[in-house]
Amino acid sequence: xxSEPTRLPGLPGVSLRLRYAGYSDFQSxxxxxxxxxxxxxxxxxxxxxxxxxxTNTDPIHSVLQQPGLTEVVPLLxxxxxxxxxxxxxxxxxxxxVGIRPYAVKPSTSEATTGAx
Length: 116
Fold this sequence. Notes:
Elements: E1 6-7, E2 15-25, E3 34-43, E4 52-53, E5 60-64, H1 74-80, H2 108-113
Antiparallel strand pairs: 1-2, 2-3, 3-4, 3-5
């Protein structure tokens, strides 16, 4: 899990960055949608380097829940063109993939003669 730092209003130069703290379980049931342990690193010029809320040994334990039923907002549906007609939905997703090349193994003749 990665997160960008989020500025904290009212605290100039201070930001918070959430990080995974060692436990997650995303099996859902009627009572919960999963659980995750988090820690919040605080970053700022006058804060110690290891300043955090929660740690790996004493994390912020979060139980994900859905309070009540999902509410449909008709105005938002209209603005987004929902519900979309069959075959009219489009999802655009940007994905970045890094590929690291393997070292090139010299051929047998190059290895024995030293030629490149």
